[in-house]
Amino acid sequence: SLRRLTGFTPSGRLHLGNLLGAVRPVVDGQDRSDTVVFLSDLHALTIEHDPGQLRARTLEQATLLLAAGLDPRRALLYVQSQVPQHTELHYLLECVTGYGEAHRMIQFKEKSAAQQQVRLSLLTYPVLMAADILLHDADEVPVGDDQTQHLELARDLAVRFNARYGPTFTVPRAVRQQVATRVMDLTEPTRKMSKSAAGEAGSILLLDPPRVIRRKLLRAVTDSGRTVGYDPVRRPGVANLLEILAACTGGTPDHLAETFSSYGELKQATADAVIGLVEPVQQRYAELAAAPEQVREILAEGAVTARARTAGTVDRVRTVLGLA
Ligand code: ATP
Ligand code: MG
C-alpha cells in the first residue's frame, strides 16, 4: 500500500485544528496506508526555543497522538532527532540544493522578516523536510497551503538526484484532504487556528478542560445577524462554528444551520460536540501520561524501526555521491 508521511512540530500545544485537520485523518487512514508519523523536534529548533519546553511538548504530542488512536502496531511513530538518518540525509541533500533555491522559499522570507536573529537552520529547513520525506520513500505527503512550495522542493531534489546519480528516491506527491477541514481562530475567524498564535483565547487546545472549551466557544466572535446561516465569506465566525460542529457530528454546515434559531443555541451545541469528541481523548491521555516511561518505550522502539528502515536509503546516497 501507499506510504504516507506526516510530521508534527512540537513548537506549541496541539489544538482542535490539528485534531480535525491532521490527527484524525492519520488515525483513520492507518489501515489503508502504510503510515509514518514523526515528531519533528529538529524543525522546532529553527526558531527561538526553550529546551525544557521542547522536551515536554514532544512527549505531550506523542502521548496525545496515541490517546487519539494512533496505534504503534499499525503505524510507525518516532521522534525525528532519535533517527540520525534525518540529519545525515539533510546534509547530503544540501549538497544538491542551490543557495538561491532555498532563499526563494516564501516561508523563509516571511519568518525571517519577523525575527531579529535568524538561525541558519531556518533557511535550510525545507531541505531537512525534503530529507524527512525522501528518507522514507514516501509516496504521499498530506500538506496544507503553507507547505506546497516545500514539497515542490522535495520533488525537484528527488528528480534532480535521480537524473544525475541514478534512480535513488521515490518522487513524492502532495495530497490535499478530501474534506478540507480548516479550523479558524475563534477570536479572528479569518485566520486559521494556530499553535504559534499570540493568544490562546482563539484556540481550543486538546488538553483544555471541558469548562474552558465551553467558555471559549461561548465567547467566539460571530456577527450582528440574528438568524443562523452558513456563509463563510460574509459570516466567517458563524461559518467556523458550523464547520466545527459538522466535523464533530457529521452532517453539513448548511443543513445544520437550519436547526438553530440563535447563536447561543449553536454555540452550546458546538461546545457539547467538541467536548464529546475531546473528552475520551483526554481520558486516554491522562492514563498514558501517568506512565510516561511506556510512551518513551514506544518512541524508542519506533526509532529502532525507523533507523533500520532508512539506513539503506542513506547508504545508497553515500555510495553514489562517492563517499568512502
Ligand atoms: P504553527 O503555527 O507552528 O505552524 P500549526 O498549528 O499550523 O502550528 P503544524 O504543526 O504546522 O500546526 O501542523 C500540523 C498539522 O495540523 C498539519 O497537517 C496542518 O495542516 C494541520 N493544521 C494546522 N492548523 C490547522 C487548522 N487550523 N485547521 C486544520 N488543520 C490544521
Ligand atoms: Mg503550520
Automatic annotation (TrEMBL):
L-tryptophan binds at D132. A motif ('HIGH' region) lies at residues 10-18. It catalyses: tRNA(Trp) + L-tryptophan + ATP = L-tryptophyl-tRNA(Trp) + AMP + diphosphate + H(+). Its EC number is 6.1.1.2. It is found in: Cytoplasm. ATP binds at T9, P10, S11, G17, N18, G144, D145, D146, V183, K192, M193, S194, K195, S196. InterPro entries: aa-tRNA-synth_I_CS (IPR001412), aa-tRNA-synth_Ic (IPR002305), Rossmann-like_a/b/a_fold (IPR014729), Trp-tRNA-ligase (IPR002306), Trp-tRNA-ligase_bac-type (IPR024109), Trp-tRNA_synthetase (IPR050203). Homodimer. Catalyzes the attachment of tryptophan to tRNA(Trp). NCBIfam families: trpS. This is Tryptophan--tRNA ligase. It comes from Micromonospora echinofusca.
